[in-house]
Design a protein that fits this description.
With 179 residues, this protein is an alpha/beta fold. Helices cover 40% and strands 17% of the residues. It has a single domain, classed as Leucine Aminopeptidase, subunit E, domain 1, CATH 3.40.220.10.
């Protein structure tokens, strides 16, 4: 199996022409602020319509996608092919299973991309915005979970961590240098 070295990019994830862009969504899948808002704005109403359909099918609009889970939709007007919506945990001090849930976001997104035949995938720094997850801890969990899961996803040939802020960028730069 070829070794994959995750790439690092600073910028706006909505601009990326990859197979799958991962969205840090909320459980209701109704759009929100941060990267979620940016993705929905750039994708246009088709994305929200698909999310609403998933929420309806889940029969429970508040928890259409629980923390740690991932669902896939088309990408509307975005240059990517699909959007994978995953729901990060809200940071509550670290004793409420946050690390396991965050690892699950990265893992389930990769497994879903593999199932969908999507070879390149870009992740934002899930939970490190309004959900308050400490950036250092989140990055360690993200990189570890991705590296572990890649062993099970031979169809995935390109992984990009997209950092919006300088602090995340420098944290990831250090971590990925050691991978
Ligand atoms: P969460 O609710 O999971 O914390 P946020 O969207 O508030 O989600 O933040 C997650 C991360 O996404 C933050 O590090 C934020 O800086 C980053 N972010 C915000 N907008 C974009 C964007 N357009 N592209 C990439 N990352 C973004």
């Amino acid at each position: 199996m070829p070794e994959i070295k995750p790439e690092l990019l600073r910028g706006d994830i909505t601009k990326l022409d990859v197979d799958a862009v991962v969205n840090a969504a909320n459980s209701g899948l109704m759009g929100g602020g941060g990267v979620d808002g940016a993705i929905h704005r750039a994708a246009g109403p088709a994305l929200l319509a698909e999310c609403m359909e998933i929420a309806r099918a889940a029969g429970n609009r508040a928890e259409a996608c629980p923390a740690g889970e991932a669902v896939v939709t088309g990408a509307g007007n975005l240059p990517c092919k699909k959007v994978i919506h995953t729901v990060g945990p809200v940071w509550r001090g670290g004793a409420y299973g946050e690390a396991g849930l965050l690892a699950s976001c990265y893992r389930k997104s990769l497994l879903l991309a593999q199932r969908e035949g999507l070879a390149s995938i870009a992740f934002p720094n899930i939970s490190t915005g309004v959900y308050g997850y400490p950036k250092n801890k989140a990055a360690e969990t993200a990189v570890l979970s991705v590296m572990k899961t890649l062993a099970e996803t031979p169809g995935i040939t390109r992984v990009i961590f997209v950092c919006f802020d300088e602090e995340n960028l420098s944290i990831y730069r250090k971590l990925l240098a050691a991978v």
